[in-house]
Structures are given as C-alpha cells and as structure tokens.
Amino acid sequence: MVILLSDPRVSAVPVRDAGVPFVRLGAEFGVARAWVRADLAERLGWAREALPAGLSLRVVEGHRELARQTEIIDAYAAELRAADPGVTEAELRRLTSRFVAPVEVAPHVAGAAVDLTLAGPDGDLDMGTPIDATPEESGGACYFAAGNVGVEARANRMLLGRVLGGAELVNYPTEWWHWSYGDRYWALMTGAPAALHGPVGERVAA
C-alpha cells in the first residue's frame, strides 16, 4: 500500500535539522542548475557515476519556494474539486498529495528532493510519461510501479530506481521522477529516527 505525504505518519516524524547548506547542481545534471542540500547533491553524484556509459541524470527541479508549492497545491486541488464538487476536505487533501505535498512536509521546500529523468546522447529516455504528469491525465502511469507503461519505460524506471536507491534516495511512489534524501518521507521510509531537513523559507548556500 502506498503511503502518501498527507499520511499523519509522515507529519509525525520529528525534524532534527542537520544544518546542511544548499549547493547548486553542476551543468552535468542539466541546464536547470537546481539548488539542493549538499548531502543530496553528493548522493546524486554517486548515482550518476553508477549509470551505464552514455547516460546521465537530468534534474529539472530541486528546492521549491514555499509560495510556489502553495500555488501548485491550490491549482491541483481546484482541478480535483471541479471534477468532483462533493469531495470532502479530507479526501481532497489525500488526493492532492498524490501529486503535490502539503507544505509542512514538502520535500522540495526542504531542499531535500529532486524531480529528474534519465538522459542519453539523443535526449531524454522513454520513462512512460512526462515529468509532472498527474494521475488523472496519465491514467495512473505516473506511479513508479505502474503496469500500463511499455517494456522500455519499465526498464528505464528500474535502472533509475537502482542507481538512486543505491545512493540512499527514496522515491515517492506516485511520481516516478521524484526522489528525496533527508526529509520526513525519507525518514519514514528508511526507519531513520528523524528527518535531517525541514521546510525552509530562505536558502543558506555553502
């Protein structure tokens, strides 16, 4: 059973901030040059080195400002409410969290998550859906373990999972592209006693 970011078990995880600064990813991770915590950047480097020759990780987003997180939540919740005007607030929060995390536990706002894909010499590899495909528009194919993707996309997802999991990152299972380290969801999934990073209002660079 998938544990969503709206699950009370996630928010119950304590945060013991490790004081890890932010760094900007190098061009080897793509033109976005995303800001992330230094310990996450280090692990992305490990994962990149574990890829077969000719492949790379293209990171499209890292740290996300609180205001932007709120905008995404509001926009997606409005779409869901329009599709089902009778949805309860509790169910709306649960459904929304399949695609965007509540701000208090959001890995991106903590600088502890990246959205990324695999790339080769000719561009991005087939992963089954675009990054940021919602469950509705993808028919659930955005889930990492979705059965309704092709053989090539499944193999590419498994490769992504091997190198990132081997580098101690965890996947949010409703989004094949979302991986994190040190946030509350990571702590819950790995059994760590506390998160290393909580949401931040302002980046502190190394």
Written account of the structure:
The chain is α+β, with helices and mostly antiparallel strands. The protein is built from seven helices and seven strands; from the N terminus they run αββαβααββααββα. It has helices at 8-11, 38-50, 66-83, 89-96, 135-138, 151-166, 184-190; strands spanning 22-24, 35-37, 56-61, 113-120, 123-124, 170-171, 178-180. The strands form two sheets. Strands 3, 4, 5, 6 and 7 form a five-stranded antiparallel beta sheet that branches. Strands 1-2 form a two-stranded antiparallel sheet. Strand 6 (170-171) and strand 7 (178-180) form a beta hairpin. Helix 2 packs across helix 6 and helix 3 (66-83) packs across helix 4. The longest helix has 18 residues, at 66-83. The chain is globular. The termini are far apart. The mean pLDDT is 96.
